[in-house]
Amino acid sequence: MKRILTTALLLLPGAAQAANASLNVATGSPTGTYSAMFKNIGAVCTQSAYLRERGTSGSLENIDLLLDNQVSLAFVQSDVLKARQQIDKDPRVENIRALLPLHSEELHLFARPPVVKKNILGKTTVTGVQNFADLKGKRVGAWGGSLITARVVGAMTGVPYRIVNFKDQPSALNALMGGQVDAVLAVVGQPAAWVKNLGNGVNLVPVPMNDRLAAIYSPAKLFYPNLSAQSVPTIAVQSVLATRDFKTPDKKKLLLDYQKCAMSKLVNLQEDEGMHPKWQDVTFRTWPWPQYK
Q1: 226 exposed, middle or buried (CB, 10 Å; 0-12, 13-18, 19+)?
Q2: Are residues 123 and 220 in the same domain?
Q3: What per-residue confidence (pLDDT) applies to 22?
Q4: I need a labelling partner for 177 at 20 to 30 A (CA). Which of 43, 60, 202, 262 fits?
Q5: pLDDT tens-digit series, residues 207-248
Q6: 184 and 222 inside one domain
């Protein structure tokens, strides 16, 4: 009987198409902003029924999955796309399109509190990372798309530091607390749940803006009462939900319907209870990458 019902459903108009229409979407960690925003769109758009979430380590893995045809959509930082295009000269990036322009993601720079010492003459010395310039010659941990941001920001500020690659956020922070790195750089939309849970053993370090950075990044501020009594200046990069420039009519319609629904439901995404606060930053007006049409 089950087989008969399944066959009957597939004979309905459009059912066969829908059965084969599932697309994979690369997001990030289950507790991350990308995953939350993907689920939020799914709550207001029935067009998301054919989209399946694929958890990843973030933007760097996401762009590789998209370029390698392992997923059809991917949440990525726009600086990762630009670095792949302008630094790595990867011709495949020319086929990438932005299905939706999303929120800004702030650069979080973490370090252990500075150590203050007095010598026998009463002279005070302070060691550690208090400002961005203190990273010179230091070890900076990062993972995912933050590895690319660390590379770009280091070059654009002229502050030479050594980037240490980690597989994820817990391993990077454990290395910071254990003294294996001097700082950790993470690009994530605030408020990030895991940042709000950090204790007093970690400080937020200010990140200054300059003319070179302004070509890709925008000024921003971090607000985490658990880490600082006041806001901390930093920079931010816009994220996008990216896809490839698909031409297949069925897939194109599915993607454009999803795009249209998300854009028409922006007020719901911003005002409905339980939606991620980063929707407040989204306007769907600024496109840091060519639009999918």
Answers
A1: exposed
A2: yes
A3: 85
A4: 60
A5: 999 999 999 999 999 999 999 889 999 999 999 999 999 999
A6: yes
pLDDT band per the 50, 70, 90 thresholds, residue 14:
very low
Quote the number of domains for the chain.
2
Give a yes or no: residue 288 inside a domain: no
With a pLDDT cut of 70, the percent of the chain lying above it is: 89
Determine the structural domain holding residue 140 and report its residue range. 106-237
pTM, two decimals, is 0.82
